[in-house]
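tool=predict chain=A
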Amino acid sequence: MKNIVFDSVSKDYRMGEVTIHAARDVSFQVKSGELCIVLGPSGAGKTTVLNLLGGMEPATSGKILFVGEDITSMNDLQLTDYRRYKIGFVFQFYNLIPNLTALENVELAKQVCKSPLEPEEALRIVGLKDRIHNFPAQLSGGEQQRVAIARAICKNPDLLLCDEPTGALDTETGKTIIGVLSDISHKMGKTVIIVTHNSLLAPIADRVIEMKNGRVVADTVQNKPADLEAIKW
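tool=predict ok
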């Protein structure tokens, strides 16, 4: 099943008399349950694509379909519901509330969705069942990112969008985070999209979309993604 369809999508920004083409005629498809990596250097248009798919910015032209629904035709209220109920977001920086425990940070997500996972279960999935009562300052960077992932999956979203989720982490910790995201896709059946500049992550994906200068330059399906342990980091 085609979960996501980008159909000739462009996004332009006006800065005075200058027009910046952040995304140009972008077309691709992602199937339900795939782990997809959007790869490219800084300025390639990766985060723009993520923001468009997440309903955080409107497209200048083209269509974006999510499970048959046209995101580009949604009004503000529909977009709010779409972001709240169907999308989980994970960013490079964890955005945890420092005076709340890991469990309390995850419980915030439960309050804004229709059919959430139990917060304790979400933290167990990411390997933090023994750290639920710790505050962010008592956790390592990798553990804080896992709390952020638990908060995102607690919503039980259809789609998990991750913007450079390992960018602030060392290599070994980043490998752990990618392992968690791979499990969420392949064991829980969630569609996961990871935006990154790190080409070392590409072999673990079911699909790799490469971008440059706002355009898709390659779209590769990998029928047998590499095992995480086989990758030389």
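DSSP finds six helices and ten strands in the chain. The chain has one domain: 31-57+85-228.
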